[in-house]
Structure formats: C-alpha cells, structure tokens
C-alpha cells in the first residue's frame, strides 16, 4: 500500500491561498489521490480526488506532479473555518480499495 | 451534511461488555466502510461491506464484527470490550467500492470504555 508523507502542521493567513503538500513516492498504476479534512473530531469531509490530471471543484484545487509522486492541495482563499486536519490518502488498489490515513497536516488559519 | 448518519452519538460501556453501533448510508450507496479513530491519530480501517457481504478487513480481531442489511445500512458489533477500544467510530458510504468513488463519512460515535 502506498504511503503518504505530510508536514505535521502549517499556518496560513486568512484570505491567502493555503498550499498543502503531500508526498506519495510509492504510488503505483491507477491508484488515486484523495484529500479529506477533519474539524474538531467530526467525521472526515471529502474535498477532492484525482488520478493524473489537475482537478478543481468549489472547495479546492488538486495539483498532481507529472510523475505522480507528489501533490498539492490548494485552498484559494483560506478562511478561519478552514482550520482543520487535512489528510492526503492514496487509495489501495487491492481488494477493498481501502483508505489508509496518515497523521495529516494540522492547518491553522490566522486572522 | 453527507447524508450518512450514525447512532448513538456517544456511548459509555464497561470493560467486558458488548456494543452495537449503527450506520445509515447515503441513499443509493451500496458500500459501507468502518473506521476506528483513537485520539490524536488518523482513522484506521476496520472492514468494509459491499452488497451485504464483507469485502475486506483490516488488522482488527474477530471480536469486531459487522452486518450490512438489504437497505445497505450497517452495524458494527464489538464483543468483550477493552479499554483500548475507546475511540471515535466512523462509518463511510460510497456508490461503489472501486477506485474513483469517494467515501462520505458520518459524524461518528464516540465510545468510552471504563
């Protein structure tokens, strides 16, 4: 199962773009990259996912490098409500296609 | 709101007891996965059900068991509770279990074992 590496914490000024990096150098084949966030021990909230191409939705953009060994989640205009733990997940390609969560990045948006 | 609901919200049990947690999946979703999240850690995969059959299991002992019903709602049962079972239990549903289909999580059940 591919593993991900994320910085444990980051700060971002309110209104600025938050760029959250993720390393997944052992990703293989058609394994997708998913991003979730978790606020105050609520259930993780789905943000976005991608395979090869960059993706954008109403919440965020996902930039995946050409070799697919790393990705960046971009929150274009961070607000205080974006303060959360952000998880980058490479989904296993075998059996259940289960999510393997790491410890995530704790993003703090500062006023 | 994801449309995934869980009950109860909180639960306190004594070591050695048994507990049943319930999950109602989002409409049309045939796959339910269960996760355990200890304090300060990421969620850990327990098992997954697809169309009423167990479709895979993580590194959890047999005293963790589950069911999925014809309406795709699900139960997680834990027997012989241990103190280390204290955690947030999350269920997640998806349209399919394969790649490309994201999972939507419920709010979780906070279990405390004393």
Largest sheet of chain B: 7 strands, mixed
**Class computed from helices, strands and strand pairing of chain A:** mainly beta
Q: Strand-residue fraction of chain A? A: 35-45%
Q: What is the helix fraction of residues of chain B, given as a range?
A: under 10%
The largest contact between protein chains, plus residue counts on each side, is:
A-B, 26 and 29 residues
What value does the average pLDDT of chain B take?
A: 94
- Our estimate of the beta-strand percent of chain B is over 45%
Please tell me how large the radius of gyration of chain B is. Answer: 13 Å
Tally of DSSP helical segments of chain A: 0
Structural class assignment of chain B: mainly beta
The H/E string of chain A reads EEEEEEEEE
Main β sheet profile of chain A: 5 strands, mixed
Number of discrete helical segments of chain B: 0
What does this structure look like?
The complex is a heterodimer of chains A (111) and B (114). Chain A is mostly beta strands and 111 residues long. Chain A has strands at 9-13, 18-23, 33-38, 45-50, 55-56, 61-64, 70-75, 84-90, 105-110. Chain A contains no helices and nine strands. The termini of chain A are far apart. With 114 residues, chain B is mostly beta strands. In chain B, strands 2, 4, 5, 6, 9, 10 and 11 form a seven-stranded mixed β-sheet that branches. In chain B, strands 1-3-8-7 form a four-stranded antiparallel β-sheet, with no helix packed on it. The model of chain B has no long low-confidence stretch (mean pLDDT 94). Classes of the chains: A mainly beta (111), B mainly beta (114).
């Amino acid at each position: 199962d591919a593993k991900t590496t994320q910085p444990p914490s980051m700060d971002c000024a309110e209104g600025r773009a938050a760029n959250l990096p993720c390393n997944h150098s052992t990703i293989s084949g058609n394994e997708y990259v998913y991003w979730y966030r978790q606020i105050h021990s609520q259930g993780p909230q789905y943000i976005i996912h991608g395979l090869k191409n960059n993706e954008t939705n109403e919440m965020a953009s996902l930039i995946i490098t050409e070799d697919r060994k790393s990705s960046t989640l971009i929150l274009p205009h961070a607000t205080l409500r974006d303060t959360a733990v952000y998880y980058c997940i490479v989904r296993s390609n075998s059996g259940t296609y289960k999510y393997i969560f790491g410890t995530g990045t704790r993003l703090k948006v500062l006023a | 709101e994801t449309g995934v609901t869980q009950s109860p919200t909180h639960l306190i049990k004594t070591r050695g007891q048994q507990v049943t947690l319930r999950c109602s999946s989002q409409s049309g979703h045939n796959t339910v996965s269960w996760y355990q999240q200890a304090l300060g850690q990421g969620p850990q995969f327990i098992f997954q059900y697809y169309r009423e059959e167990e479709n895979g299991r993580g590194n959890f002992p047999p005293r963790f068991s589950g069911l999925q019903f014809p309406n795709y709602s699900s139960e997680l049962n834990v027997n012989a509770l241990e103190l280390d079972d204290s955690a947030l239990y999350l269920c997640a549903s998806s349209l399919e279990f394969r790649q490309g289909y994201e999972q939507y999580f419920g709010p979780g059940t906070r279990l405390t074992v004393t």
